[in-house]
């Protein structure tokens, strides 16, 4: 499948591996793909993000991803659902961090320490990569670009889609900007 990726899409995947390794994560997750997309300049995805007003909000997106990571990767919707059952995620995080230190619920038992082996792709990242292929096929594009990765992130439930939506980037708005609904195509 990677032979169909454009130079920009390949760079996003490589940069996502770098983000995961820098964070000491066991696997590359969907959030690492989003972080790598935020780093891009001059690509179709960066154009679309800018057109939707999210291009200059990279730090805000990063903070929202960090906060979700601190909640052990739970989305706000999941935390709200637990609250409806009487489970206060914020209180649990506070107590765990009190006992075990800040960031204890990030899922990295070594506290983000670098590992010597290369990280693999987690299920959520694999679903985004597969979703990017589906997005390209649906749009009748021959190659998978970074815009297809961004589209796939908006269709998969979870923290990245929630954070993007909070910043005005939904599948519908992105499709409009990229020309998926008869509008002028980006880039």
UniProtKB/TrEMBL annotation:
Residues 2-187 form the Clp R domain. Pfam families: Clp_N (PF02861). Keywords: Repeat. This is Peptidase. The lineage of its organism: Bacteria, Bacillati, Actinomycetota, Actinomycetes, Kitasatosporales.
